[in-house]
Write a structure and sequence with these properties.
- The chain has 550 residues and is α/β, with parallel strands linked by helices.
- Among the domains are: 252 residues, HUPs (Rossmann fold, 3-Layer(aba) Sandwich); 124 residues, Ribosomal Protein L25, Chain P (Beta Barrel).
- Helices cover 26% and strands 23% of the residues.
- It is built from 13 helices and 27 strands.
- The strands form 7 sheets. Strands 12-25-26-27-23-24-13 form a 7-stranded mixed beta sheet. A 7-stranded mixed beta sheet has the order 21-18-19-20-14-17-22, with no helix packed on it. A 4-stranded antiparallel beta sheet has the order 4-5-6-7.
- Helix 2 packs across helix 11 and helix 11 crosses helix 12.
- The longest helix has 16 residues.
- It starts with 7 loop residues before the first helix and ends in a 7-residue tail after the last strand.
- Bound molecules: adenosine-5'-triphosphate (ATP) and magnesium ion (2 copies).
Length: 550
């Protein structure tokens, strides 16, 4: 398929189709509903749904709900929302590992009857010790040679709820001396007296991930079970179970590299702690690497998908630079986002040769990258706001912005020259006095005179107050925890959120459009849902790398 991308996974699928092993791939995305999806999951979603689309197959959404203790409906709903947000559709193929509990149980009895599984009464501690080490073979459990009858009886009584949590487990009987720890009689079932969100109290016996996963794949007719590299060592067990059970199909497991991103933690355990301990405002805090957080931050799904495509499907783990993600966001928003003017830290400007109480309407281009975006009208008047950072009383040579005696362009307005300053009692500049050149309307002078600096500004009569939330990395270290004995939370960035009382042009206050905008010279922003009719709130999605060269 010429439309399909090039990577080792797609090469395998292409070869399998050519060899007649399958007509089209059937894949699955199997989240555990114990938290919100994050950027790492997006990589797996784009891969699984992406190859299904490209090769004319299908991708299932399967909730891996084998651990009732940590799973919640809120997460189940959020996961579906987020997969859809990325633009993918499971087309009716929504499944749960819990759908298969009865079949999985029957297959466990099948293993017992074949002498390939046994009930072990050892304590978790004893089991850990007898498993051995990488250099030392494990010790067989004293219960390993129980008869089929005794195993069946005990397993059925486990299901009936006769024993407390942790009293017994069911283990596969494989090889206690295997060089692969996963093959040393892995646990298939554990006792857990807990209410499951879907099966309620029907079960007090739950399958482990290793046992449930491959068998769920086989039941659903998955052809390519794509998972991250840490499951490479589990593959022999995956295959052993498929070989030893009466499964209706034989899926194969393939591993790809997990996404690791600088300044970012992609572990649900850590993300859960961040939420629980109030380091962030919730799962969708705009600083969170969750898909819900990215949406609230204003990151378009297209930008995230572009990023995933750019990093590719490597077979080895690596750390991806967060800057690459920002590149994809800017690249998309540069074309898509309308331009608006906002002043984050306002400084008053009075145009001395502009008549009091008079205004002039000026056209402002909505998006120089998109001619169809048209123009809007802004007003120029005697009192304006500019950015405090755009003025220096004693400026170095290359400061092309406002300083006494220097001419600058006010975007879409006029050339103005700073003629003086007004200071408060503390000696701080609180107002600039300027003159404008009436011949430079729109920002060009008829005599071809050049100015180096072009500033954004607001008409004081029209400016609307807004809260602007400036975000930085949630962690101050590119590899959080690496310099503090693994204490990730020691690396939390105390300056990850700065809130400023800003002013914005009226076009930004009207309506309640969540679409991203560019605040000229400042970055890309989007309206937060905390906005109220009188007070819009904006989140900074990402800054601009460069200010205008013009
Ligand atoms: P965590 O370790 O944070 O709990 P998980 O892998 O257990 O994450 P799941 O809900 O089981 O979370 O993940 C669903 C799918 O997403 C799995 O197939 C998993 O391999 C994949 N996935 C999770 N994190 C990443 C990541 N950082 N990069 C690529 N794929 C990932
Ligand atoms: Mg997990
Ligand atoms: Mg998992």
């Amino acid at each position: 398929d010429a439309a399909a991308g090039q990577d080792f996974i797609r090469d395998i699928i292409r070869a399998d189709i050519a060899a007649g092993k399958c007509t089209a791939p059937v894949t699955r995305f199997p989240p555990e509903p114990n938290g919100y999806l994050h950027i790492g999951h997006a990589k797996s979603i784009c891969l699984n749904f992406g190859v299904a689309e490209e090769f004319g197959g299908r991708c299932h959404l399967r909730f891996d709900d084998t651990n009732p203790v940590k799973e919640e409906q809120e997460f189940i709903d959020a996961i579906q929302r987020d997969v859809r947000w990325l633009g993918f559709d499971w087309g009716g193929h929504l499944y749960h590992a819990s759908d298969y509990f009865e079949t999985l149980y029957e297959w466990a009895e099948h293993l017992i009857k074949a002498g390939k599984a046994y009930v072990d009464d050892q304590s978790p501690e004893e089991m850990r010790k007898s498993r051995g080490t990488l250099t030392e073979a494990g010790t067989p459990s004293p219960y390993r040679d129980r008869s089929v009858e005794e195993n069946l009886d005990l397993f059925r009584r486990m299901r009936a709820g006769e024993f407390p949590n942790g009293a017994r487990v069911l283990r596969a009987k494989i090889d206690m001396a295997s060089g692969n720890m996963n093959m040393r009689d892995p646990t298939l079932y554990r006792i857990l007296h807990a209410t499951h969100p879907r099966t309620g109290d029907a079960w007090c016996l739950y399958p482990t991930y290793d046992y449930a996963h491959g068998q769920s794949d086989a039941i659903e007719g998955i052809t390519h079970s794509l998972c991250t590299l840490e499951f490479e060592d589990h593959r022999p067990l995956y295959e052993w179970l498929i070989e030893n059970l009466p499964v209706p199909s034989k899926p194969r497991q393939y591993e790809f590299a997990r996404l690791n991103l600088s300044y970012t933690v992609l572990s649900k355990r850590v993300l859960t702690t961040l939420v629980r301990d109030g380091h962030v405002s919730g799962w969708d805090d705009p600083r969170m690497p969750t898909l819900a957080g990215l949406q609230r931050r204003g990151v378009p799904a297209e930008a995230l998908k572009d990023f995933i495509k750019r990093i590719g499907m490597a077979r080895a783990n690596s750390l991806v630079d967060f800057g690459m993600f920002e590149f994809s966001i800017r690249d998309f928003l540069n074309k898509a986002a309308p331009r608006r003017m906002a002043v984050l830290r306002p400084l008053k400007v009075v145009i001395e040769n502009w008549p009091e109480g008079e205004f002039e309407e000026l056209p402002a281009v909505n998006n120089p990258e998109d001619p169809e975006a048209g123009t809007r009208t802004i007003r120029f008047g005697r009192e304006l706001w500019v950015e405090q950072d755009d003025f220096m009383e004693e400026a170095p040579k290359k400061f092309y912005r406002l300083t006494p005696g220097q001419e600058v362009r006010l975007r879409y307005g006029y050339f103005v020259t700073c003629t003086g300053v007004v200071k408060n009692e503390a000696g701080e500049v609180v107002e600039l006095r300027c003159t404008y050149d009436p011949a430079t309307r729109g920002g060009d002078s008829p005599d071809g005179r050049k100015v180096r600096g072009t500033l954004h500004w607001l008409c004081a009569a029209d400016a609307v107050p807004a809260e602007v939330r400036l975000y930085d990395h949630l962690f101050a270290n590119p590899t959080p925890g690496s310099e503090s004995d693994g204490d990730i939370f020691a690396d939390l960035n105390p300056k990850s959120l700065e809130v400023v009382e800003a002013l914005v042009e009226p076009a930004l206050a009207a309506g309640n459009d969540p679409a991203p905008v560019q605040f000229e010279r400042l970055g890309y922003f989007c309206r937060d849902r905390d906005s109220t009719p009188g007070k819009p709130v904006f989140n900074r999605t990402v800054g601009l790398r460069d200010t205008w060269a013009k």
